[in-house]
Write a structure and sequence with these properties.
The chain is of the alpha/beta class. It has helices spanning 16-26, 61-66, 78-86; strands spanning 10-13, 30-34, 42-47, 50-56, 70-74, 99-100, 105-111, 117-123.
Length: 124
């Protein structure tokens, strides 16, 4: 039987420079590749075993798509990651502070510059 091995979310980026800086400087991802265009429109990033790709979305569509995009990443120490990300102003989602959830996870969320919500969690 076939097995799924890995998933990599492709996230919209309106202001590509701001998005790239956010993932690298605030979330601790490293750039692994970029397209060959003069102004990059597609970049791969990785932190530990998690990969994300950023794709340029121009105009007002970026915010519309971004605010409807979510990703969830399982982490081994959600409290430590929350502490790390809390050092940067405006990274933690205003309604996404670290909390134990009724569905059995401990989690928090961040908002990227395009409005994408990323939740980091551990199972109880």
């Amino acid at each position: 039987m076939a097995a799924l091995l890995k998933g990599i979310p492709v996230l919209p980026a309106g202001d590509f420079g701001a998005a790239l800086s956010f993932y690298k400087d605030k979330l601790g991802f490293d750039e692994t590749f970029r397209d060959n265009s003069e102004a990059p429109g597609y970049v791969g990033l990785k932190r530990d075993d998690v990969e994300v790709h950023l794709a340029r979305v121009d105009g007002g569509l970026a915010r519309t798509v971004g605010e409807q995009t979510m990703a969830r990443f399982l982490v081994n120490d959600v409290d430590a990651l929350f502490t790390e990300y809390s050092r940067h102003a405006g990274v933690i989602h205003p309604n996404g502070k670290l909390a134990d959830k009724p569905w059995g996870t401990r989690e928090f969320a961040v908002l990227d510059p395009t409005g994408v919500c990323i939740t980091f969690y551990r199972n109880a």
